[in-house]
């Protein structure tokens, strides 16, 4: 099968496909888990049935995403062994332990309490149920924590040394708390949260726009907007910190992110490229629009750079990434989305402050609601773009500066990897279509506001709980 | 320090065996129920079978993920070598487990329940077969060089010995699935699975006996180990005990008791596991690479032991708690709302 690329290229394509696709589902479940905790606490505190129905309605979307997340997560772990056996052997002492921690600390916690969270409303008392919901959300976020530790170590491997390509750990905590770790964990944490907020907000806006259960969805809309006021700006700042650490630790990635071919020495200013057509063969940009002298301001908030920004030409072709256009544009797409979401949040917050989001008036905010619906998928695009920058930009290394991707792959025949890649393409296309179909149906059916409330809610208070849905407008209920 | 070099890999061998055992019994009954659902008449009965697993399958499957992570961290060479040698069965298992997972979600939402019922059943069967082939080929020996790197071919895993292991594992899963259903259902459905339990008890026994007989004859490495180690008498006792357990199991099935068949089956699985463990030990890639050769650095093993070892009782506790919360018979075909 001569027409096939090398086995390691196919393994890389397979890993990229499975990772980018897998990411779409836990991104929502980790963020939405926190939202479910919030509405369940509000339910227990206020006994307002709306919050209970919110918990039930959103958990339908939650479990759909969770199922796909589990189904697509298993290939991620096993691929390290099947397709990246030399990598597994070289780094297992540290990397394998971290995956083991993720499974035992995070995965199991989430899986062990999910059943109770979904089906246990009548079987356990309300506080145990809340505890189960908290554990599910906590488990999901612990997963983010461990996976980002593992990936950050691949970006900035510290805490030991490589002897003949094998990593020997000297200090586990130094390896865990490697230079990239803190900002990467936080950047991803806020990415999951922001994506989920805009998905929940977008779906709520759709109901408001359709005039269906406006009061009910005005509630969720305001909860997520309240959170977005904090999250959207913080995420931009986390993005800045992440770019700054690339500047300090990964010069080849920074050069590719900026499509910069020539080096800027320390003490000088540089232009920031806004649009470009990078040409890898000619080692230059065929076309470019720049913002003069802006690079220093972006990286360090001052016009002169304190460290040099090395150009791609400063590195031998085999020591730098080659998909410069992909890295360059993924980076810009992510930034554009981050700023767009923050702007949308700011306009929405202003309208809220002006009292435009009361249950009666919110239906009039048609353009704003449309903007929120438009924004629902943007978080996913930004997150996947960010991961493309992070991992394609790391090439040609699997472990930056230490293990080359070409040396990390198993020697599986190309046609075998090609077959499994084809299998993943087929399966994942079907999964995407089917999930969108069922997700759309859950949304078009809407919340079930006639569900009986769990009988045991009375346990937590001497006052009788409201058994009937409150018919008053939302603003009047407290 | 030297004792530590031996002790730590042994501890991790034991932990891995524990995770694998928990996976095989817990997801074993999930997969067994899945295989059995292919033979159930009518989508309502199939729905009942799936409902009996709806809140536990995910946690059960997680023991496999856990075992993968622990093998990766504790014996990195073995993780890479075994998984890349078994590329096709492992990927087949991964695909099948993915399809099984989504069948649960999609069935709940779909009007065409029959489609997802079938997907669930077929995926369970494929996953079970793939696991059997993988287990069988690990036992029959993976070709490696002195450093433990795989040097065999892509299709090495496909031979009559791994086929025998695969078929036997399917029988075992059907057996534990049947006894689980005896525990969780009532009426007609329960009667059916008293019958399937009896049949699969016999077929499992036949498969297990064939494996027991052929192992010392055809596996030179294991044969030498068996007779040199002085464990031969112990290995003679295990099949006898197994036959005894099968007898007790059949008697409890005839007496229509609800709980004891499942318990006898668990003991049968435990016994098989002890037997397998004793044969394989101290190898992680039988009979080429020992756990001492494949182990990560002692500091890694200690580091992992602190975190994971501390969590094992906690994980067991909340998993058991979940079973307690959802104890009792399955009543309907819908999960919740």
TrEMBL record, chain A:
Residue ranges annotated as transmembrane are 20-43, 55-74, 94-120, 127-149, 185-209, 221-238, 326-350, 371-389, 416-438
Indicate how the chain sits in the lipid bilayer. Answer: Multi-pass membrane protein
User: Is Coiled coil found in the keyword set?
Assistant: no
**Which family, according to UniProt?**
Belongs to the cytochrome ubiquinol oxidase subunit 1 family.
Please provide the record's keywords in A-Z order.
Cell membrane, Electron transport, Heme, Iron, Membrane, Metal-binding, Transmembrane, Transmembrane helix, Transport
Q: Where in the cell is it found?
A: Cell membrane
Look up the record and report any one GO term of the cellular component aspect. plasma membrane
Please give the name of this protein.
Cytochrome ubiquinol oxidase subunit I
Query: Cross-referenced Pfam families, in alphabetical order?
Result: Cyt_bd_oxida_I (PF01654)
Question: Highest taxon of the source?
Answer: Bacteria
TrEMBL record, chain B:
Q: Which residues form the signal peptide?
A: none
Transmembrane parts of this sequence: 12-40, 85-103, 115-142, 162-183, 199-219, 231-250, 262-285, 297-321
The terms describing its cellular component in GO are:
cytochrome complex; plasma membrane
* Subcellular location field: Cell membrane
Question: Which Pfam family is an annotated match for this chain, by its short name?
Answer: Cyt_bd_oxida_II
Say if the entry is tagged with keyword Membrane: yes
Q: Which GO terms describe its molecular function?
A: electron transfer activity; oxidoreductase activity, acting on diphenols and related substances as donors, oxygen as acceptor
Record key words, sorted = Cell membrane, Membrane, Transmembrane, Transmembrane helix
Task: Name the major location.
Answer: membrane
Topological type in the membrane: Multi-pass membrane protein
Give GO terms for biological process.
aerobic electron transport chain
- Protein family membership: Belongs to the cytochrome ubiquinol oxidase subunit 2 family.
Tell me what this protein is called: Cytochrome d ubiquinol oxidase subunit II
Q: Which organism is it from?
A: Phormidesmis priestleyi
């Amino acid at each position: 099968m001569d027409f096939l690329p090398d086995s390691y290229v196919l393994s890389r394509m397979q890993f990229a496909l499975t990772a980018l696709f897998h990411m779409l589902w836990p991104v929502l479940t980790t963020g939405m888990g926190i939202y479910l905790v919030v509405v369940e606490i509000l339910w227990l505190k206020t006994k307002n049935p709306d919050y209970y129905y919110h918990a039930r309605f959103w958990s339908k979307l939650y479990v759909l995403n969770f199922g796909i997340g589990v189904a697509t997560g298993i290939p991620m772990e096993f691929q390290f062994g099947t397709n990246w056996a030399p990598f597994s052997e070289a780094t297992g002492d540290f990397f394998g332990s971290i995956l083991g921690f993720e499974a035992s600390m995070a995965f199991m916690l989430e899986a062990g309490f999910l059943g109770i969270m979904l089906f246990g409303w009548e079987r356990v008392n309300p506080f145990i149920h809340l505890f189960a919901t908290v554990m599910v959300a906590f488990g999901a976020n612990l997963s983010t924590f461990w996976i980002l530790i593992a990936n950050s170590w691949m970006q900035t491997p510290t805490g030991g040394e490589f002897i003949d390509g094998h990593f020997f750990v000297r200090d586990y905590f130094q390896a865990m708390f490697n230079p990239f770790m803190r900002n990467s964990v936080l950047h991803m944490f806020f990415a999951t949260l922001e994506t989920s907020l805009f998905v929940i907000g977008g779906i709520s806006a759709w109901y408001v726009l359709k005039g269906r259960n406006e009061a009910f969805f005005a509630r969720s809309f305001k909860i997520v907007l309240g959170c977005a006021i904090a999250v959207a700006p913080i995420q931009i700042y986390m993005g800045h910190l992440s770019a700054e650490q690339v500047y300090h630790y990964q010069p080849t990635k920074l050069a590719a992110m900026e499509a910069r071919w020539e080096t800027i020495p320390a003490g000088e200013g540089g232009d920031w490229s806004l649009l470009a057509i990078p040409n890898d063969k000619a080692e230059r940009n065929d076309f470019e629009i720049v913002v003069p002298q802006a690079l220093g301001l972006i990286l360090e908030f001052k016009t002169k750079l304190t460290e040099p920004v090395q150009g791609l030409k400063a590195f031998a072709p085999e020591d730098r990434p080659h998909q410069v256009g992909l890295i360059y544009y993924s980076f810009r797409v992510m930034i554009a989305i981050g700023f767009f979401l923050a702007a949308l949040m700011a306009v929405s917050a202003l309208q809220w402050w002006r009292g435009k989001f009361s249950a009666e008036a919110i239906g009039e905010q048609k353009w704003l609601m449309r903007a929120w619906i438009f924004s629902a998928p943007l978080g996913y695009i930004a997150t996947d773009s960010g991961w493309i920058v992070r991992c394609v930009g790391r090439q040609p290394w699997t472990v930056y500066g230490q293990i080359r991707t070409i040396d990390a792959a198993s020697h599986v025949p190309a046609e075998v990897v090609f077959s499994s890649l084809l299998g993943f393409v087929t399966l994942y296309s079907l999964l995407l279509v089917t999930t969108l179909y069922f997700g759309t149906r859950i949304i078009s059916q809407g919340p079930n506001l006639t569900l009986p409330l769990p009988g045991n809610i009375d346990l937590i208070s001497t006052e009788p709980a409201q058994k009937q849905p409150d018919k008053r407008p939302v603003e009047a209920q407290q | 320090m030297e004792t530590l070099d031996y002790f730590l890999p042994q501890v991790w061998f034991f932990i891995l065996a524990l995770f694998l055992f928990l996976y095989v019994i817990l997801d074993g009954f999930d997969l067994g129920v899945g295989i059995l659902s292919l033979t159930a008449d009518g989508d309502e009965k199939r729905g009942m079978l799936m409902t009996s697993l709806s809140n536990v399958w995910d946690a059960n499957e997680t023991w496999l993920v856990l075992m993968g992570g622990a093998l990766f961290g504790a014996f990195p060479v073995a993780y890479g070598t075994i998984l890349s040698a078994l590329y096709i069965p492992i990927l087949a298992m991964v695909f099948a487990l993915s399809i099984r997972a989504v069948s649960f979600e999609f069935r709940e939402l779909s009007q065409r329940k029959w489609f997802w019922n079938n997907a669930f059943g077929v995926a369970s069967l494929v996953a079970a077969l793939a696991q059997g082939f993988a287990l069988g080929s690990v036992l029959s020996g993976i070709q490696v060089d002195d450093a433990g790197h795989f040097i065999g071919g892509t299709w090495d895993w496909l031979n009559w010995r791994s086929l025998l292991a695969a078929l036997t594992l399917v029988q075992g899963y059907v057996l534990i699935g049947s006894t689980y259903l005896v525990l969780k259902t009532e009426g007609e459905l329960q009667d059916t699975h008293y019958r399937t339990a009896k049949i699969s008890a016999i077929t499992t026994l036949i498969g297990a006996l064939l494996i027991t007989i052929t192992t010392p004859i055809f596996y030179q490495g294991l044969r030498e180990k068996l007779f040199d180690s002085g464990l031969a008498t112990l290995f003679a006792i295990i099949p006898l005990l197994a036959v005894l357990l099968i007898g007790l199991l059949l008697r409890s099935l005839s007496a229509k008791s609800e709980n004891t068949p499942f318990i006898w089956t668990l003991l049968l699985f435990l016994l098989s596991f002890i037997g397998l463990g004793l044969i394989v030990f101290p190898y992680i890639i039988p009979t080429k690479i020992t756990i001492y050769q494949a182990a990560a650095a002692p500091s890694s093993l200690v580091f992992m032991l602190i975190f994971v070892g501390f969590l094992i009782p906690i994980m067991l506790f909340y998993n058991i708690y979940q079973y307690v919360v959802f104890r009792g018979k399955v009543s309907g075909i819908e999960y919740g709302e």
